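Reader question, answered in our methods column.
A reader sent in the components of a multi-part assembly and asked whether the whole thing could be modeled at once rather than chain by chain. We filled in our standard form and ran it. Here is what they sent:
COMPLEX SIZE: two components
ENTRIES:
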Amino acid sequence: MNDTPNRWKRYADWDERPLRLDKFAAEDAANGFSAFSSPADPKSAIAIAGGRVASMDGVLEHDFDMIDRFIARHHIDPAMAPKAMAMDSREVARMLVDMHVPRETLTRLAHGMTPAKLADVVSRLNALEIAFAYSKMRARKTPGNQAHVTNAKDDPLQLAADAATAVAFGFDEIETTMRVSRNAWSNAVACAVGGAVGRWGTLFQCSSEEAEELRIGMAGFTSYAETVSVYGTEKSFTDGDDTPWSKAFLAAAYASRGIKMRCTSGAGSELLMGFHESKSLLYLEARCLCLQRGMGVQGTQNGGIDGAPLTATMPGGVRELMAENLIAVWLDLECASGNDARSTESEIRLGAKIWPFLVAGSDLICSGMGSILAYDNSFNPSLINGEELEDYLVLQRDFEADGGLTPLPESRALDLRSRAVEALSAVYEELGLARPTADMKASVIVASGSDETRSFGPRDVSFISEAIKARGVTVIDVIKALATRGFGEEAENLLNVVKLRLSGDYLQTSAMVRGGRVISAVNDPNDYLGPGSGYRMSEPRRLEVNAIRDVLDQKEVLRSEALHEKDEARRIRYRSLGPAGPGNDVKEIVIGISPAFGLKLFQTTGGHRLSEVLAAMTGAIAARGLRPRIVRFRHTADTSFLGLSAARLSGSGVGIGLQAKGTAVIHQRDRLPHNNLELFSNAPITRIEHYRGLGANAAAYGLGEMPDPVVVPTRGEAMGSRYHARVALIYAIETGITEEGAAPEEIEVAFMGAKS
Amino acid sequence: MSGLTRADYPLAETRPGEVKGKRGLTLADITLAAVLAGEIEMEDLRITPEALMAQAEIARSAGRPTLALNFERAAELVDVPQDVVMQVYELLRPGRAKSKEQLVDAARLMRDTYKANRIASFIEEAAATYDERGLFIFRF
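And here is the structure of the entire assembly that came back:
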């Protein structure tokens, strides 16, 4: 028996990576597993007769299913269709990425295109071209974002606090849903109140059963809806318990109540529902999107959505998600572009998924980023959740791309959470719904997630929710309660959101509220026509995006060094003895220290006191019976040249170069500058024992021995990302005081013996 | 408000005096003080058919004819009571209506009682389609 498997162990390493939790599916068009094309997809074609669509994508009017019929009647513009359908798909694909072709030319053409034609055109674009075309074709110029605000207990206090923080991060829309469906009214009130803290204008949705959702909207708590799902095959549509006509009726019903609405569709839903007709994901989604334009909804939530994880298992699946988003905006629909359901366990796949949308911009980049922790996300975890939200803030800064969010200082977050919890508690008390205790409130304010709260549970919430519904509480009651209890600003904010309904301005395509104004594709149209046009971050906005926390600058480095200066003064004294010349003593090892060593800089990037580094090195040299001699160089701060210069002054011909930041080298008199004997280039992980070893080895070389080099073991840490900003700032202090031709100084070092 | 184009958008900024709730209160009338004085009802926070027709004109001028049609259908539903809206929606769902006649009746109700002609035609179109596609089947 041989228990060592005959296997390259790299595969075993790979087995342990989160990526291997993802499952991948083979391409299999017959069974619905095909992203871009399937033998069952129709060839694009249209025939118009007497101003009507007589056949579409190979199907005669007589044989149209419900979806064909709805598209033919309500989407296709018979006047545009002959021209648009006659165009070469490759040519249209090129127009999509041609910055000289205005967006409107293309959206007009789309009015005459069938689902098969739209799919045929976008499938000719590679991923980069799709992202670029998306950036050019999206409807509103200014990008935005949407958050999920939910928790595992349906706890209203936490909903209020998390809604307030989501609003402060800059989300333009927040969406909630429940673990227990009867808790919808409680969720609605909690998020409406929390979302009114700090500023006004964030639109709010409570995703629930269709009729209930509309009732909650009628009571004034919510301002938009997006759960109106459509599907690309007739059977999945009816299995979803609707038809294009019932959904279009619902769309009109929402508008009639002054509530913004978009539909939802996405690749993979038909496959999940079992009625895919062996068609490709993209073709089915193109049908969904034509249907939505025909229904007259202003927008769509698309890009896989619940089907995104399934779509991502297929070859080209992620590219397909991008392609369907492109069809959506080409059809002139507002696009809440997915990046929603977590489609992978791999953080690399996750980052790659979000990136094109971050740089291209989107009406709502995520149709639900989890502003809460993944386990609190009642929709299922999002692509990006509370855990990773800060990574996203940094991505915005890296690419100078406006992802719709703004960093939030810690103290401000705490203030807002506290305010939201108090505001909701006041409303509850005023309306006789509940009396949250001080302990409940305190636990929620600081909690990152519901595991840490001692607050309402789902059963408590049901009583509250049913009371809100039964008593017919409306937003007016909540506004009054807020104002009565001293939350006048929140009352005003909430009233402003409800007043949006009067004009209906926010019912237009891609509407959101920024700075108290409705902006949409009507008054903020995407006017991209090449570099210098379209959306660009303003300088104030750029500075806002850049203001992530814990940013290092030179002042910060000097402040930190000043702290260490006092400490080092108790431990070591450096005394200059004048110019240093070449030594004759074959038993000496020169340690060449850098210009700012112990004068302006006092610790290595590994956090070791320079006094301890020097003590370890000199001690090790002395232990071999050699004499350490310290020389400060002022003509260079470069490690190699410090080392070489030290070696040239050294009677033994061996010298050590030591920078204040802790980088060290052993050099020999006759060697080329960068051909040293030993080098510690990773100062942050270099420990005192390594410096001691370096001293011992320098002595050994001085004695003509050939010691084992001291190796500082690296575990692959990203040293550059962790330290280089500090290193560069520190090194600038060194180079700032170098002086061309400055003579080396003999230094006498006295250790004062202070212990930590 | 008529003959509007995208230049008239947003109405809350260009026509603040003409944007009114159901009882005639303007945006400026609906203040927190008025709410606290008990002068504001949910009806005052409802969109009107006029506002929806105005948004339809703006949508059309912005090159979005299907969105405009949706706003026009919506304008007809503003005064239809919520329970009637929900009944019609329910009837349009698959298998709810057991025959074409039920939908045709609903269309007649919308046309005769609520003057909702576009909605009525829309329901009739659904009725004809459901008939052809066999959607009047019993679903358990």
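What stands out: Residues 12 and 34 of chain B are 19 Å apart (CA to CA). Residues 1-79 of chain B form one domain.
Send us your own complexes using the same form.
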